[in-house]
Design a protein that fits this description.
Number of strands: 8
Structural class: alpha/beta
CATH superfamily: Phosphoglycerate mutase-like
Distance between the termini: 77 Å
Radius of gyration: 21 Å
CATH topology: Rossmann fold
Strand order of the largest sheet: 5-4-6-1-7-8
Number of domains: 1
CATH architecture: 3-Layer(aba) Sandwich
Helix content: 25-40%
């Protein structure tokens, strides 16, 4: 009897410690702390319609291998969350760009925000994110604003005043420290996911 009571009391005393450990663990991985955010433009568009051109479909299929995993210098980065601009009448291209990768990794494509809602997306990730690597596909006209929402400078990263309309093969890599702050010195533009014929 005493033994059972003793175990029960000891178990109850340990509960706050266990809960605290769980909370600390969750706190450590929440938001953008020690996170890498990858940003791509959607793949090539056709003359008409909301989908991808044949070349765009080729690029989307290439991403399925390119990002499984992404190899940068001496590290490998495997996306754990896929996020795309919400579909509109004009374009489903960001989602379609990530679809082959989504199928390969068995990850859903999240589409919580419209194209212009970059501040909401950055704020949401800063508050509620458990993934160490997040891949975002967006429309090029809003990518600099998205980078700014994360605390970065698109012009500084790319060396261009705006994202060129003809460029589909840039990858933006944003790295965040253990406080969730953007490390500009470690962030970069990468130009590696090239297809045959890419001239940039």
């Amino acid at each position: 009897m005493m033994s059972t009571l003793h175990r029960l009391v000891m178990g109850l005393l340990a509960l706050p410690l266990f809960a605290g450990a769980l909370q600390a663990c969750a706190h450590d991985s929440a938001g953008l702390r020690n996170t890498t955010v990858l940003i791509v433009r959607h793949a090539e568009k056709p003359e008409q319609g909301s989908g991808l051109s044949p070349r765009g479909e080729e690029r989307a299929k290439a991403y399925a291998q390119y990002f499984d995993p992404l190899r940068l210098a001496d590290e490998q980065l495997l996306p754990q969350r896929l996020i795309a601009t919400r579909d509109s009448k004009e374009s489903a291209r960001p989602r379609l760009t990530l679809t082959p990768l989504s199928q390969r990794l068995n990850l859903p494509i999240e589409q919580p925000y419209d194209d212009q809602d970059v501040d909401k997306l950055a704020k949401s990730l800063g508050k509620d994110n458990q993934a160490r690597v997040v891949l975002i596909a967006w429309h090029h006209g809003k990518i600099y604003k998205l980078i700014k929402a994360f605390g970065g400078d698109g012009e500084k990263l790319t060396g261009q005043q705006s994202w060129p309309g003809s460029v589909y093969d840039w990858l933006i890599v944003l790295r965040f420290d253990d406080k969730g702050q953007l490390m500009e010195s470690r962030s970069q533009k990468v130009q590696e996911h090239l297809l045959p014929g890419d001239g940039n």
